[in-house]
Design a protein that fits this description.
single chain; alpha+beta
Amino acid sequence: MRVLGALVCAGWLSAAPLGCATSMRQTLDETAAVFHDDLRWGRLPAAETAVDTEMRAAFQAHHRGWGVSVQVIDVEVESLRSSSERGTARLRVAWVHAGDSTDVKQSLVEEQWESRSGSWRLRGETVIAGDPGLFGTPAPERRTASR
């Protein structure tokens, strides 16, 4: 009986560090949820902590107008897929140009994520549909036929 008790205790103690290690590791779902919440509420310095250092300057350029010329109304994650080291998120962003709250625009953004040392980092983002002006790129002018 003592041997069985010792084996159970030894098994429990050897598994305890594994539980600690996995709880310290963030999932892409958790990282992306905090990141998108920070984006939605204009906390760009907080959001930048999830951006890969090599991509941070491009991220800052893309989001330079947020809170100034671009007002984000909503950020909705449409899909989130990941493997052990890479992930892709698609989100729909509703936004307006500052000073014109009547013309709500929509952009579909695809993000690329990568896991390094247990932390997920944003590696890229692209407007794949909708209005490209979200990242400061003007929408193409619509030409009307002239008579």
